[in-house]
Amino acid sequence: MGGAHFIWYTTASLNALLQSAYEQVNRYRNPGFRAIFVLLLIVSGFGCNKDDDEPQPEPPPVADSLVTQSRTATYLNSLGGWPDFYVNAYPEATAEDVAVDDDKFASTYELDTDNWYASLSLQGFEFNIPENATIKNIIVKVRRFKKGSPAIGDNFLTLMQRYNCDLGICVYGVHWTDQDSYSGKVYPDNETEYIFSQPGSGYNGGYFHNESYLWTPAIINKTFFGVRIDVSPPVGAGKVKIYYDQVTVTVEYLVPR
Questions:
Q1: Mean local confidence (pLDDT), 235-239
Q2: Does 193 lie in the same domain as 105?
Q3: Are residues 35 and 120 in the same domain?
Q4: Which of 38, 209, 212, 230 is the most buried (most CB within 10 A)?
Q5: Same domain (yes/no): 19, 126
Q6: Cα separation of 74 and 94, whole Å?
């Protein structure tokens, strides 16, 4: 068979050949040996980089890809027969009212110290996160304010797997509660945006910040996943209403390449 063939040498074997050729040149002063010696020197320029005696470095690992999805709710106090079982303090509000920052508000009826219970349930965010993804962060952005003389604020704000706790795990992950200090706990008189962020897993979940939690794509992709915000009783005389302009949930996750 015709054609050129290249033979790769290890550094150790090539050095041995060079040493032998050098000894033959010095011993016999033979021009033929000198030619072989020169040829070996030329070959050594090609073969010495293929060193079988030294392990080749491993290629660097390929980094996972960070992906972000942001969504707004498609259900406001209306999923799964919600109005049939719970007092709806947002009787005229719809999910469209909190989908865009457009001065179109979801609001409560008037609250006071005798009639103060108000719970906001936002669900149906329609995430489609891959099953093999790792959740890194979940960020809730809320634009809200109140009108009226009494002070009023959160009893708790949290994410949830579902609203009805009789059916299984409901509120889940990090809670912001009336026992904590944080920006936006007491509602302002002017519309303001607040950000509530939590990692994909931790040990500070629950009302008392002592429960472990782990967010997965399977939980977040479900229609019943969402945001729940319950108020504390107003402080002071008079009536007050709560207004929400826009609420968004953003999920940051890693996908293996």
A1: 97
A2: yes
A3: no
A4: 230
A5: no
A6: 8
Checking DSSP bridges between strand 154-160 and strand 240-255, what pairing results, if any?
Answer: unpaired
- pLDDT tens column, 4-52: 444 444 455 545 555 665 565 555 555 555 555 455 555 555 444 444 5
For the residues 103-126, what does the mean pLDDT come to? 97
Check the CA dihedral 162-163-167-172 and report its sign.
Answer: positive
Nearest to 245 by CA among 121, 127, 104: 104
User: Could you tell me the CA-to-CA distances from 165 to 72, 147, 168, 189 in Å, in that order?
Assistant: 23, 31, 5, 33
Of 147, 151, 141, give the one whose Cα is nearest residue 186: 151
Q: Are 176 and 157 in contact (CB under 8 A)?
A: yes
Count how many Cα atoms sit within 13 Å of the Cα of residue 48 in the half-sphere of its side chain. Answer: 11
Report the amino acid identity of residue 102: D
**44-70: b (≥16 Cβ within 10 Å) or e:** eeebeeeeeeeeeeeeeeeeeeeeeee
Q: What percent of the chain has pLDDT over 90?
A: 71
Q: What is the pLDDT of residue 157?
A: 99
CA pair distance 250, 197, nearest whole angstrom: 9
Digit-coded pLDDT (tens) for 187-232 = 999 999 999 999 999 999 999 999 999 999 999 999 999 999 999 9
124 and 233, same domain (yes or no): yes
**Residue 82's pLDDT is what?**
84
- N-term to C-term CA, the chain: 45
Count structural domains, the chain: 2
φ, ψ for residue 87, nearest 5 deg? -75, 120
State which residues form the domain around 231: 65-255
